[in-house]
Each structure stands twice: as C-alpha cells, then as structure tokens.
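Hey, I'm writing a tutorial for new members on how sequence and structure tokens pair up, and I'd like a real worked example in the thread rather than a made-up one. If someone can provide the structure for the chain below, I'll link this post from the tutorial.
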Amino acid sequence: MRIHTRKKKSHSCDLCGKKFSHISQLRAHRRIHTGEKPYSCDLCPKTCSQAGSLRSHRKSHTDKPYSCDFCDETFRETKELTVHRRIHTGDKPYSCDLCDETFRETKELTVHRRTHTGEKPYSCDRCGKTFSYACNLRLHYMSHTGEKPFSCDLCGKTFTQAGNLRHHRMIHTGEKPFSCDLCGKTFTQAGNLRHHRMKYHTGHKPYSCDLCDETFGETKELTVHRRIHTGEKPYSCDLCDKTFSNTGNLRYHRMIHTGEKPFSCDLCGKTFTQAGNLRHHRMKYHTGHKPYSCDLCDETFGETKELTVHRRIHTGEKPYSCDLCDETFRETKELTIHRRIHTGEKTYSCDLCDKTFSNTGNLRYHRMIHTGEKPFSCDLCGKTFTQAGNLRHHRMIHTGEKPFSCDLCGKTFTQAGNLRHHRMKYHTGHKPYSCDLCDETFGETKELTVHRRIHTGEKPYSCDLCDETFRETKELTIHRRIHTGEKTYSCDLCGKTFTQTGQLRNHRRIYHTGDKPYSCDETIKQPGNPRVRALMHGLTWD
C-alpha cells in the first residue's frame, strides 16, 4: 500500500514570499507578477499564462454537450454543469471556518478567506495597487485602458464583465429563469427567488439577532445585519479603498466608477443602477399602483418595505441605534448617514465647485444652488421647492391636514415628533432623563443629548454652504433657508410668508387677532427699552 505524504514547500517566490512544493508551480506563479502569457490559441489571438488555461479556452471553440435540466445553459465539462446546478438548488457545500459564509465552489471559498487574512497577491504593474484575486486586477486594468470588451448585440451597450452583460440581456429578452413553484412568480436570479419564498410563503425566520429583535430566514442575512451593530465592513473597493458591509453595496458602489446603469425603463428609457430603483420609478411615474395602505393614515405604498418604515412614524419606533451616541433611527440608511457625523466622512463631491458631502441627498440639494432648480411645485398656489418633504409640509397649510392626533385631548399635529413632545409636556409630565451638569430633566434621550451640547459647546451639524455649525438638525434646516430664501409658512389672511412657524404666529397675533396674552408685572421707566417694545407688541421676552 502506497502512503501519500505532503511534500514540503521548499520553493519560494522572491517577489512576494509565497511558497510552493514544485518548481513548476513557482514558475506558473511568477507569471502573475510578470504578466507573461506564453501559451497562445491557434484559433484566435487569446494568450494564457498556463497550459491548463489554454486547454480550457480551446473548448470555447468546440461544442457544449452538457445541458442544464433547469434552464437552457450548456457546458463543455460535467464539472461546470455540477457547479451551475447549485445556482438552482441553492446548494453551497463549502463553508468558511472563520465565519458563517457558505459557497458553491472551492475557488469562491479561497477568494473569501482573503477577506479575513487581508492577502492581496495580485499587483498592477502600472500603479502598484494590489488585489485579492485576478479578476479584480483585470477589471482594474480596464480603468487604465478604458476597455469594455463585452458588448450587447441588441443595443450596442458595452460592459467590463461578462456577468453584467448576461444580466443586461435579460432586460431585452425578459428572461427570468428562476420560478417559484408556489405562485409561479419568476426571477432573474436564484437569490431573489429564495428571498421571495421566505418573505411571502413560508414566513419562517429561525435566525434571530442577539443584539436586537430582528429575525432572518438565512444565516447570511443575519451575518450582514450584525455588521450594523459592529460597524464591520469587510468588503473594499479595489478602485478607491472604500469599504462596505456586504457585497451588494460594493457592486452598487463600483457603478459610480464605471457609470454603468443596467436597468432601463421600457416606457421612458430612463436607466438605473438597481432593479429596486427601476420598480420604484415605474410605480411613481407610470403605473401609480400602490397596493399597500397604512391603517393609521391615508398614505399608500408600492412596496411592503416602504409601508413598514412609514408605520414607524406613527409608532415612534426607531430600532437602529448609533453605537457612538444615543441617537436612534427608523431605518438603516439613516443610521449610515448619521455615522458620518462622527467619522467626518464626505464621499460625494460637487463637480462644479468641489464641495464634499456626506450623502447623495445633500449633494443633489447643493447642485440646485448652482442650477436654481426647484423641481417640486404646489398644484394649489404654484410655489416651488427644492425637496419633496418641504412640498408635503407646505400642502398641509392649504389642506389644514394634521394626521397625528393626541388620544387624550384630541389636539392634532402635522408631525409625529410634535405629538410626542405635546404628550410629555401637557399630559404625562414624565421626564425620566436628567442632565448630570444641571437640574434640567427631559422626556426623551434625544432632548437630553441636544441639551448637553449647551454645556459642552458641541455643534456637530455644519452648513454645507458656509462655516456655521449647530447643536441640532432643525437649527441647521432653518439656517439653510437664509441661503435658499425659502419661506415655507404663509399667513392665510394676508399671504405674507415666513421662514419659521414662530414668526407666523407672532405676525397673526400682532396684525390680525390683536391678542396680547402677556402682561407686564413691573414698571419700566425706559420707554426705549427693547423689552418694553416687545411687550407692547405682544411678544415674549427672555
């Protein structure tokens, strides 16, 4: 009986130190550094670094005798077919011994392990940047050359990767090879099918987060979710070193560099980087179909996810908390943007003045200063706004709508936050949070956090248009109106407009109602004193 022993790795690369058991393996490895490709195809100009790669390539000129019994894909080798079938079955037999990630084939596991080790064996000979695997290096080279070798034969659009082209072709063909056996709904990707089954049919979510109450149908989803709490971002962009908590966000980010927008609307031609954005566009501008309605107000939504987030406005639920301060948020994207206040990260820059911003919304808002654009107009008075939220708030002036009502006294409000503040001030009086620097008490941790900044002098919110800083976001919002000239609050008796509701209330009292609720309880002998003038006009004085 022959006993096999593992041969010692005595041959090391003098460029990176990697060791090999055979000199032939070392020679093949060195070609990664040199870029040498000595094996050429006699049927086309392609060259390869190894003889095995050339043999595999030659099969692209021959037939593909092995076909998938789930879809129309054909393959040259049974091994390729075996790996492909796992897309349909969801089988991932190879697991990482350092985390919960599982993979369809061994090479995916090998590449994944480098996420933990930080190994980047492939280097660019033009700029010296290093990469964890060869395909990223090839993609990086294209940023130098501008090459996009994969072109669509139906519309001529070009791509840097074959996978992107395959996904793009489905837009033209309408192909959705993965179908649900319970309702017949079809999908372009196997992962979308699995997510659909759990969300709409089984509802089974056996994996729960030990840091919050969220539950998940797959361990992968739980792993990604935990990174919200830990702040871990293991996936980095090979073009700019930005890091991400999941591969989907990394793919989406890469499109910023490539300019790729693979999803196009078949009704108006507008293109998008994500399928979800395309769906949202169709519902908003073409179909108008919003089947999901809120049972607490009249708002309707095109997706259940939007409805879930909206309900939190009524319930006050904010399940996502910042691990650096006491701020809580309704959705993860709000938390992501908030964290940039602490890190100072501003990844989005204006191409007209080079000013940088922490999120795309602020960048879009800033660009309107250059263009003068105000795309949101009121259909009742014609007033225009730079943001949809400002328009919604403005419409309530016309309609008198106040969707949030107090269940104790019936008073109504335009915003949920105002209702919460009203309850604490006039009904419960409960203020469990006290300042450790003075005797002030508060009903919410958010109020306490803002109050503490009076003592510390901290002003974390800065204006993107000047150097002014503020203790809280509402002060920043009011300040911005100095730059934009926006006056969202108008008097219904004379039409005069104001930047703040307090100014509107004072105006009504002085010029229309004549109400003077504040009486002077002392004699002041200086008629020119500003305090006297304030009392004469029915204003308060601090």
